[in-house]
Amino acid sequence: MNPEQMELTIGWLYPTLMSTYGDRGNVICLKQRGQWRGINIQVVSLDQQTPAEAMHQVDIFMGGGAQDRQQEIVMRDLRGIKAETLREKLEAGTPGVFTCGAPQLLGHYYEPALGQRIEGLGLLDFVSKHPGPDARRCIGNVVFELTASPLAQELELMLGTKPVVIGFENHGGRTYLGNVEPLGRVVKGYGNNGEDGMEGAFYRNAIATYSHGPLLPKNPFVADWLIQTALRQKYQTPVSLKPLDDTLAMQARDAMFKRLALLT
């Protein structure tokens, strides 16, 4: 089946409450790279007014960062049938990117610097804790090599080299993984907690990461993997995307790598 005959729906989780540090750029990038290939891409907002049934139509989930207060509001809404529907979709292999505050919602809980513990959905086996209002934030450019399977292997076939992600992190919370695979190995920056050298988590086809930046414009191959995976999941057939001219994106990545090398 020709990708130009296909369509995808991006479900943007709580865009007015969870979209800090340019996370909107991930949605824009994903939509544009699909449209450049002739794929019909629709973006739907999944917010407090959205019924749970709308999640059934989603082919790719996108979730961004948020402050603690906004995170609490989201968690109060993302309960019951909404939580179960999201769980079913992710378990079935629906791909997505969950950035900063969004993956904290998917874990067991998040303990803010002040206030009550925020219970998560328990979809991913990890916990997140803020060490306190006086603790140093994990902020700055972050570089990590993707190691999660099969994501890393599929991207290596696509790229012809090991996939390396560059982004920007800014988080007070620290995430500690349980029985869930890390997304990658930190080359520069803090990653999940600044202690164990891990960044993010990967489950089924869901990417959890502290990398803003935003992530997808800086790493367009990840956007292409999401599109390809979503099409494969939806239409149950192998899909090959035609390449795009990413010269400018690659030049920007090279410039950042050189700048970071000078700072080490």
Report the strand count: 14
Assembly state here? single chain
Tell me the overall shape. globular
User: Which percent range fits the helix content?
Assistant: 25-40%
Q: Which radius of gyration do the C-alpha atoms yield?
A: 17 Å
Which structural class fits the helix and strand makeup? alpha/beta
Cα separation of the termini: 48 Å
Contiguous low-pLDDT stretches (5 residues minimum) are none
Mean model confidence by pLDDT: 90
Please summarize the sheet with the most strands: 6 strands, mixed
* Percent of residues in β-strands: 25-35%
Discrete helix count: 8
Element pattern in H and E: EHEEHHEHEEEEHEEEEEEHHH
The spatial strand order of the largest sheet comes to 2-1-3-4-14-13
What does this structure look like?
The radius of gyration is 17 Å and the shape is globular. The chain contains eight helices and 14 strands. The strands form three sheets. The protein has a six-stranded mixed beta sheet. The chain is of the alpha/beta class. Helix 1 crosses helix 7. It has helices at residues 24-35, 68-77, 80-91, 101-106, 151-159, 215-218, 220-235, 247-263; strands at residues 7-13, 40-46, 60-63, 96-99, 109-111, 118-119, 126-129, 138-146, 164-171, 174-177, 184-188, 198-199, 201-203, 206-209. Strand 13 and strand 14 form a beta hairpin.
Summarize this, please?
The chain has 264 residues and is α/β, with parallel strands linked by helices. It has eight helices and 14 strands.
